[in-house]
Design a protein that fits this description.
This protein has 228 residues and is α+β, with helices and mostly antiparallel strands. It contains 2 helices and 7 strands, in the order H-E-E-E-E-E-E-E-H. The protein is rod-shaped. 6% of the residues are buried.
Amino acid sequence: MKKFRPVFFVIFVIMGLCLTGQASWATKAYVTDSLEITFRTGPSIENKIITFLRSGQPLEVLESRDDWSRVRITGPEAGYMEGWVLSRYLSTQQPWEIQAISLKKENARLKEELGRIKEQWRKADQEEKGISEELKGNVEALHRIQDAYETLKREAADFLRLKSVHDATSKTLETTMETVRKLTKENEELRSSQKNKWFATGALVLLCGLMIGLLTGRQYKKRKTYYS
């Protein structure tokens, strides 16, 4: 007698549960890469075909029985119809066509994002070049300002030195002018005094001459009278 295998027992239990009632769970599934599969009213090829499901059609698996699965077509356009399909045509992975479409969309999105990044990079590069040019101009302007400042500082030092010399010269000149004015005044006073002396001397000489003339005239008259 053959031994009873537990795996068969588990399968029988699962099938019994599926037969006793509708499963309360639903898993996501897709029609495999076949062209089309039949969507029937029951779990048999003798049941009526409701429609044909295309490859990649998303479904909800409501229960499984033997080689068949009761599924619901998702999407409002299908009206959430329920029916039976062969389980071997179902897959929990997306078909390659859907994956390819999804990858194409993702690739297009990435290309668009790359284009935006390139445009942002181009603008950033232009802004960086503009900032570099502006910085270069600012550095050159700063150098010019520094040169002008150094020149101004040298000129200011020269100006201060010249101002100091000018102030000293002006002070010396004022002192000299004051001395000249004093000497001029003293010279004028000396000249005036010398003139007065010459005038007094001349007057004295003239007075002496007159007196001598008078005395001489008297003596002459006396002699004349005496000899007369």
